Amino acid sequence: MMSLVGALAGSTAILVTWIVAVLDFIGVGLLRPRGFGVKEISARRLLLAVWMGLAAVILFLQMMPFVLPVRGPTLAVVAAGGLPGWLQNRTTVRQSLAAAHAPAWRLKLVALRLFAAG
Questions:
Q1: pTM score, whole prediction
Q2: What is the Cα–Cα distance from 13 to 65, expressed in whole angstroms?
Q3: Are 6 and 65 in contact (CB under 8 A)?
């Protein structure tokens, strides 16, 4: 019974970690379109922001050892890196999600959850 509880706790921790990572990647990925003057954030652009954010984080982590060793502060920078993207685009994302069709948006949300689960 204890091994089942441990397995559920471990699986939950992994799921929460992936959700936080995907939200961070989306936040980092949202910084790029805003810099190029994109005003509307669609569900498709949110899904593309995951990959753009992942690429930016990987680039940052590859360049970081040239400056400082990759340790705890680097993790903090990566973890907080998506916050400016979400804060800068919060009203645009909220309006875009409110304007989306409910059934189509639910399907895309399920696809995003499946992607995050892995």
A1: 0.72
A2: 28
A3: no
